[in-house]
Amino acid sequence: MAGTVAAPDIKGFWQAIGQRATGSTIVTARGADGPAGFLGLSATHLSADPPLMLVSIDRRTSALAAVLASRHFAINWLGADDTALAEEFGGRGTAKGADRFAPGRWATLVTSAPVLVDGAGAVDCTLEETIERGGTVIAIGRVAGVATGKTEPLVHFRGGYRRLALSG
Q1: Domain-located, residue 97
Q2: Cα–Cα nearest to 144, from 84, 90, 74
Q3: Is the torsion defined by CA of 65, 66, 72, 75 positive or negative?
Q4: What pLDDT does residue 59 have?
Q5: Domain annotation covers residue 155
Q6: Has residue 13 got a pLDDT over 90?
Q7: CATH number for the domain that contains residue 28
Q8: What is the pLDDT of residues 101-153, one digit of tens each?
């Protein structure tokens, strides 16, 4: 493969990871100070029976405290028109903390974790287990509720956001 490096540095590692297309998600929880969330590009299902989800959370992410204290989280798949929202929750916007949760755009399912009303889909989870590795906390949650949307998903690939090119 072109550009192969045996022992990559951090930049090389992220370049390799960026080669995989992934759904853009916002992971949310409701902590003592209100709603909290972050852009989560490492969220996936772990098991269908029982239904379990997994999300990797950087220890420096302020929303980690809300996930751990509330013992719940929701994974919200962003719709194709949600690039600005992804940027906001990725720390590139002007709003911070609870100010990123626009009234009327968020609801709840089973737990009190915020769920995006007009997103591509969401899973609402109760936190079952955490595993700490390096600078990351891996949160494993049992699915308590689901929502499906009617919009196409926002995809993250090579450091940017893309729309799916669907054929017939």
Answers
A1: yes
A2: 74
A3: negative
A4: 96
A5: no
A6: no
A7: 2.30.110.10
A8: 988 899 999 999 999 999 999 999 999 999 999 999 999 999 999 999 988 88
In a domain, 49, yes or no: yes
Q: Which residue, chain included where needed, has tokens 């853009």?
A: 24
Q: How many domains does the chain have?
A: 1
Whether residue 98 contacts residue 35, with contact meaning beta carbons closer than 8 Å, is answered with: yes
Q: Looking at residue 112, what DSSP letter applies?
A: S
Is residue 5 included in any domain, yes or no?
Answer: no
Question: What single-letter amino acid sits at 153?
Answer: P
11 Cβ neighbours under 8 A, 6+ residues apart: none
Instruction: Please tell me whether the overall predicted TM-score, pTM, comes out greater than 0.85 for this model.
Output: yes
Burial class (CB in 10 A: 0-12, 13-18, 19+), 146: middle
Domain membership of residue 83 as a residue range: 23-148
Average pLDDT value for the chain: 89
Q: Are 56 and 67 in contact (CB under 8 A)?
A: no
Structure tokens at 55: 């999300």
